[in-house]
């Protein structure tokens, strides 16, 4: 029996440079999911796009064969005439992309965009097409299909848009679905649901899936067959059980080791005893008034409500939540970038016994001092370093602003800091574009450290990085914290990342903290349905621990759908109760 | 419903803007010391023509130029009774042109609709040329099609309009027997509208349209091309290709719709730019548009004429902006539903 898709010795390159995909071969069987795994730059995306021949213009396919053996076609996709390829695209082979935000046209209604596939490939009347699309919308989980038909993409959340993309890909019932990092841009609970959806649709229709991802956890939950790629070559290929259970190649082993995991905890942590607080966030509520323009009434949005958090000196407090949970607003309030609503305050204690500073009520001198002692590391290392400044300038600039040291002292400090983060002082004369993502994140950490801060606010510092690099950055952050006795306020959407670095975790949802405890306690005995959903949604590279979709759906919905004990509506949340020492849960008594 | 409300809102704000513009126009015109009549009185005195002075003094009274400036303004607008009761812009009396010694309404009457005609033709020309060329240049970017279109565009931008006008007149007349100068054959001037007159006007319009529109078309083509290129690299284009759409259909449905916004938004700027830009061209080509009158009026401080022409240009601008705003709301659901709750 022939495979549905056979890729043989595929080689792709740009210009005269050596190929970026070389000699890649694999096969996809009907009804199976094949995962193409690799880090950024591994060539996995080029490989999957070459199947539909939607490569960047400069890319040249230098050799190979992609044999598609569908029910109606037996064709080498690399050689097929454009017209034939068009009849296959979207009909027999469909694709979904990484960024649901940008992969749909903002100017056309979803119904129009999805039914277009049927208009292109089936001679179908508009009524019939609409009926089919509505059916498909229901299958991908739109509660009100008619409403989805009329909606524009910008009216929907990321998860809903990705469902619409999936509906678009599935509506013509393709034999092969190519999913290019379909869940990377989504929150972890949404990711779990979307992955579950793809799996269910695959079972229902018997199509094959090529899943392109960097996340072995996702792979373990989806794939029967795995191809691991690195630097344009296949490192290892085999069944999921073989590759994940007994990886043969060193690179695969490295990837598995680096995958973030929520640890199995045997016993809850002992409640922390120290009370040396460096940053005390008290009763912080932050609401924004949105002016809609024209004559409409302004809308008040509460980004976070009743937040009480304490960062202990030398420790890490992590705030975990999905996008829109209010975690970033908390960090901005903590740093004084936003003023909390009346009644809330933030107290900063630079040293034991030193004078305390109220962050939102500072004299200009205090402000300068505070800005030196509290620094921030940003999410996106690509846009947080000016491309026009040499590394040396970027690292000495904070000291110049605060008028610290002489010119040569500043240079020495920059060199010292760059050594701290594991880079070579010789690199100081380069521009940021010469560095990889991980190296850039090291540079922004070094920049934050040049002022000898006491407190570092890390806003998703590893989210934009490959897993193996993510691991290194976390180690670096731990190392620096202990070396310089720093305190961290660590913002993340990823419970597994937090698991390893935090001393205390606060889980946020819908603007409030729903559960707070040391990580060990949290993982040993999660009490809140949302925390349980977060833990259950975490994909892990272990076939024995699949995502528990039932737990996810119980906790990931709106607060109104939670069990009686935790349920609330709008901002009328119950109080945060201490159920056991050091373990607080927002629930009704 | 929502669109209607928006239209009413825009209309009200447009009227308000127009009012503010009228104040500004009046102030600016009165900024230079003296006015047309006082200049003339001084001249008459210097040449000893005492009998003329009486008439000029009469005009001064008649048009309230002897009153304080703010009263002059309200009388001009028609919000305050002047020497002849309420008689201002609001009542349809545009004032007296001292330079031409005729009512402003009479002078600009014909020129007004000819101006609108010439500029409308030019705007249509701009869109008709820029749209296909811009799309073509973007779709075939960095091929000879793109380079040729770009070259022609830059040529259009760089050639001075009056020079282009002279060249076109010469060759147009030599090879195609096109008429030179004017907006209609001399025999039709002042005649009532007839089929022959329309034909004559259309024939005369060809060269001016081309001359006034070229640089605008070139600039707009470049903008459309740049917008299209931006849009072509967006992920939703890839989605459309992956659906199996043919390139031409895909181009028209997705990126063009997106690139169209700035294109539409330009309508507002295009009209006034053309009216003021075509002054020189009108002089060179001998077009009876409002442009040459504006030039004369400004030179001789003929204040009512100048003020009226400026107000007229402002009105065109505001109408253009309003049209483009309403079109944008129709075209782009993000603007339409921007405030809708999700």
Gap from first CA to last CA of chain A: 62 Å
Major sheet characteristics of chain B: 2 strands, antiparallel
- Briefly note the CATH topology name of the domain at 313-324 and 362-586 in chain A: Rossmann fold
Beta-strand residue percentage of chain A: 15-25%
Family (chain B): Belongs to the binding-protein-dependent transport system permease family.
Subcellular location (chain B): Cell membrane
Protein name (chain B): ABC transporter permease subunit
Transmembrane segments (chain B): 7-29, 111-139, 151-171, 201-221, 263-285, 305-331
Describe the fold and architecture.
The complex is a heterodimer of chains A (589) and B (342). By secondary structure, chain A is an alpha/beta fold. Helices cover 35% and strands 24% of the residues of chain A. In chain A, helix 14 crosses helix 15. The longest helix of chain A has 18 residues, at 188-205. Chain A is globular, with a radius of gyration of 26 Å. In chain B, 75% of the residues lie in helices and 1% in strands. Chain B starts with a helix and ends in a 6-residue tail after the last helix. Chain B has 2 domains: 36-93, no CATH class; 112-336, MetI-like (MetI-like fold, Orthogonal Bundle), CATH 1.10.3720. Chain B has helices at 2-30, 36-47, 50-62, 69-77, 104-139, 144-158, 161-176, 195-232, 235-243, 247-253, 255-265, 267-285, 290-299, 303-331, 333-336, and strands at residues 96-97, 102-103. Chain B has 342 residues and is mainly alpha-helical. The chains are: A alpha/beta (589), B mainly alpha (342). At the A-B interface, helix 2 and helix 3 of A face helix 9 of B.
């Amino acid at each position: 029996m022939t495979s549905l898709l056979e890729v043989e010795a595929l080689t792709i390159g740009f210009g005269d440079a050596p190929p970026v995909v070389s000699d890649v071969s694999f096969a996809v069987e009907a009804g199976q999911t094949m995962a193409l795994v690799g880090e950024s730059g591994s060539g996995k995306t080029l490989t999957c796009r070459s199947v539909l021949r939607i490569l960047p213009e400069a890319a040249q396919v230098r050799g190979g064969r992609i044999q598609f053996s569908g029910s109606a076609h037996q064709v080498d996709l690399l050689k097929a005439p454009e017209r034939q390829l068009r009849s296959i695209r979207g009909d027999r082979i469909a694709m979904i992309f990484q960024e649901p935000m940008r992969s749909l046209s903002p100017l056309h209604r979803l119904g129009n965009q999805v039914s277009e596939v049927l208009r292109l490939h089936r001679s179908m009347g508009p009524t019939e097409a609409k009926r089919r699309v509505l059916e498909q919308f229901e299958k991908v989980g739109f509660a009100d299909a008619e409403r989805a038909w009329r909606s524009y993409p910008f009216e929907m959340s990321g998860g809903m848009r990705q469902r619409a993309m999936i509906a678009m890909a599935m509506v013509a019932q393709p034999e092969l679905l190519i999913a290019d990092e379909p869940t990377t841009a989504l929150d972890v609970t949404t990711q779990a649901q979307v992955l579950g959806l793809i799996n269910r649709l695959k079972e229902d229709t018997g199509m094959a899936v090529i899943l392109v991802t960097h996340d072995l956890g996702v792979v373990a939950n989806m794939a029967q067959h795995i191809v691991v790629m690195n630097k344009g070559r296949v490192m290892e290929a085999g069944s999921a059980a073989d590759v994940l259970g007994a990886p043969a190649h060193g690179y695969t082993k490295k990837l598995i080791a680096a995958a973030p995991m929520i640890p199995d905890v045997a016993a809850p942590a002992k409640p922390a005893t120290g009370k040396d607080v460096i940053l005390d966030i008290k009763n912080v509520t932050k609401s924004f008034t949105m002016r809609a323009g024209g004559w409409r009434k302004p809308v008040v949005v509460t980004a976070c409500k009743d937040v009480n958090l304490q960062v202990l000196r030398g420790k890490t407090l992590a705030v975990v939540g999905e996008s829109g949970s209010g975690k970033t607003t908390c960090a901005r309030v903590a740093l004084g970038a936003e003023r909390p609503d009346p009644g809330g305050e933030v107290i900063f204690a630079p040293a034991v016994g030193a004078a305390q500073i109220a962050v939102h009520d500072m004299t200009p001198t205090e402000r300068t001092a505070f800005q030196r002692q509290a620094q921030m590391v940003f999410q996106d290392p690509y846009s947080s370093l000016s491309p026009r400044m040499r590394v040396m300038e970027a690292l000495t600039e904070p000291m110049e602003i605060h008028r610290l040291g002489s010119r040569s002292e500043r240079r020495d400090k920059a060199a010292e800091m760059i050594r701290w983060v594991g880079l070579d002082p010789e690199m100081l004369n380069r521009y940021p574009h010469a560095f990889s993502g991980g190296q850039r994140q090291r540079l922004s950490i070094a920049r934050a450290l040049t002022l000898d801060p006491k407190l570092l606010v890390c806003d998703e510092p590893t989210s934009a990085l490959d897993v193996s690099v993510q691991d290194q950055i976390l180690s670096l952050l731990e190392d620096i914290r202990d070396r310089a006795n720093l305190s961290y306020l660590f913002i993340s959407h990823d419970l597994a990342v937090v698991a390893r670095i935090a001393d205390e975790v606060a889980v946020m949802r819908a603007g409030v903290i729903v559960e707070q405890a040391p990580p060990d306690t949290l993982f040993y005995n999660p009490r809140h349905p949302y925390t349980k959903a977060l833990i259950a949604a975490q994909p892990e590279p272990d076939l024995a621990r699949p995502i528990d979709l039932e737990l996810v759906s119980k906790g990931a919905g709106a607060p109104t759908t939670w069990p009686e004990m935790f349920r609330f509506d709008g901002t009328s949340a119950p109080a945060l109760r201490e159920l056991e020492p050091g373990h607080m849960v927002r629930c009704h008594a | 419903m929502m669109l209607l409300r928006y239209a009413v809102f825009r209309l009200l704000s447009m009227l308000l803007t127009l009012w503010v513009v009228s104040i500004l126009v009046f102030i600016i015109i009165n900024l230079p010391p003296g006015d047309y009549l006082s200049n003339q009185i001084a001249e008459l005195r210097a040449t000893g023509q005492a009998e003329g002075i009486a008439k000029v003094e009469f005009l001064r009274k008649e048009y309230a130029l002897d009153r304080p400036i703010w009263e002059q303004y309200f009388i001009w607008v028609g919000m305050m009774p002047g020497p002849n009761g309420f008689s201002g812009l609001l009542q349809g009396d545009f004032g007296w042109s001292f330079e031409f010694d005729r009512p402003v309404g009479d002078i600009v009457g014909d020129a007004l609709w000819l101006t609108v005609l010439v500029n409308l033709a030019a705007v249509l020309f701009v869109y008709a040329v820029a749209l296909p060329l811009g799309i073509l240049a973007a779709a075939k970017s960095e091929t000879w099609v793109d380079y040729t279109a770009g070259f022609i565009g830059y040529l259009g931008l760089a050639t001075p309009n009056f020079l282009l006008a002279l060249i076109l007149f010469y060759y147009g007349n030599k090879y195609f027997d096109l008429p030179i100068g004017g907006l209609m054959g001399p025999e039709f001037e002042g005649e009532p509208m007839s089929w022959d007159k329309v034909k004559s006007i259309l024939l005369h319009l060809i060269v001016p349209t081309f001359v006034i529109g070229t640089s605008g078309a070139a600039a707009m083509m470049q903008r459309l091309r740049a917008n299209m290129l931006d849009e072509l690299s967006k992920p939703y284009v890839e989605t459309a290709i992956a659906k199996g759409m043919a390139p031409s259909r895909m181009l028209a449905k997705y990126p063009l719709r997106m690139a169209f916004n700035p294109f539409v938004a330009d309508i507002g700027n295009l009209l006034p730019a053309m009216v003021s830009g075509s002054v020189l061209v009108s002089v060179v080509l001998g077009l009876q548009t409002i442009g040459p009158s504006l030039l004369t009026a400004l030179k001789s401080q003929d204040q009512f004429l100048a003020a009226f022409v400026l107000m007229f240009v402002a009105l065109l601008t505001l109408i253009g902006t309003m049209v483009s705003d309403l079109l944008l709301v129709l075209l782009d659901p993000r603007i339409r539903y921007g405030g809708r709750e999700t």
